[in-house]
Amino acid sequence: MKTKISVMAENTVEMPKNAIGEHGLSMLIEREDATLFDTGQGFALMHNMKALFKDPAAISRIVLSHGHYDHTGGLKGLLESQKREIPVFAHPEVFTARVARYDGPQGPVDIAIDMPNKKEEYEALGARFVPAGGRTDVTEGITAFADIPRPAGWKGFDARLKQKTGDAVIDDPFNDDLSLLLETESGPVVLLGCAHAGLVEILDHIAGETGHRSFHAVIGGTHLGSAPPEYLERAIGALEKYGVKIVATSHCTGFRAAAILAGTFGERFRTASVGSAFEF
Question: Which of 24, 35, 110, 134 qualifies as a FRET site for 5, CA 20 to 30 Å off?
Fold first, then answer.
């Protein structure tokens, strides 16, 4: 079964000329039917699907990588355009309240970065939420992995990203961070939303769960831009260990980290911008 992955929303645009970029991520997986992985911030998805001649009516299911607005903001518009029931796979903690905390002149300033609508609003528009904790079969050949184990004392790389629990604001543990494993004719392919749980930890966990000792491609956001240099080195080591033939980064990877990856992997490196397509 041939698999095609097309980038629908991302910070940058490869093609066509009338597509738009935004801070966010969305990828369309086309096999016998279509699966949408994330929905971007909300401005680009529907516009770019039209620009790239993709039919939203062909989408059989949606998977959300985590509960940030730049990965879920396009969900409402897509549902409104379809007026039908669509399964939405998401971790049970995807609706957790989240903020980005910045230092202001009079103290910390919190900016909401969580899902822009309530669960009930999406359900009224046709969303049927399917819990995707741990390991979840999405459809034939597509498996979701969340609740990624991490070492004791682990903290996310970007200290600004917080979770609200009542009146308390704490470092986000990113339990809901979810990645996809696609079984393709070329070999296993991993799709990342932001890899908040850590690229190394995600690849090691998927390998441990499946027995895979190599991955043909790793595509998506890696959040390596805010990672310390030693972790970037570990990530490069993991990509080499698993023999990854295509390293395609996007969104939250960061220019410096992407440049280092490009210099390391040479022809194996690609950017995953709006209009980029990968066939396996």
Answer: 134
β-sheet with 98-104: strand ranges across: 107-112, 98-104, 161-165, 168-171
State both tokens at 187.
Answer: 């070999």
Average pLDDT, the chain: 97
Residues in CB range of 28: below 8 A, 6 or more apart: 5, 6, 8, 34, 35, 36, 37, 49, 54, 59
Handedness of CA 165, 170, 173, 176 (dihedral sign): positive
Query: What digits encode the pLDDT tens for the residues 141-154?
Result: 999 999 999 998 89
Q: Which residue has the tokens 């395609």?
A: 248
**Region for 43 from its dihedrals, namely left if φ exceeds 0, alpha if ψ lies in -120 to 50, beta otherwise:** alpha
For tokens 């509960």, the residue is 67
Q: 62 exposed, middle or buried (CB, 10 Å; 0-12, 13-18, 19+)?
A: buried
Which is nearest to 13 in space by CA: 42, 39, 52, 41?
Answer: 52
What is the C-alpha separation between 277 and 122, in angstroms, rounded? 29
- Smallest CA-to-CA distance from 114 within 176, 191, 61, 62 is with 176
- Rounded to two decimals, the pTM is 0.97
State phi, psi for 276 to the nearest 5 degrees. Answer: -65, 140
227 CB contacts (<8 Å, ≥6 apart)?
157, 235, 257
Q: How does residue 182 score in pLDDT terms, banded at 50, 70 and 90? A: very high
- Asked if 89 and 65 touch (Cβ cutoff 8 Å), the reply is no
Does residue 16 have a cis bond before it (omega within 30 degrees)? yes
Any idea where the domains of the chain sit in the sequence? 4-279
Q: Phi and psi for 172 in degrees, rounded to 5?
A: -75, 125
CA gyration radius for the chain?
18
| Cβ-contact 246, 218 below 8 angstroms | yes
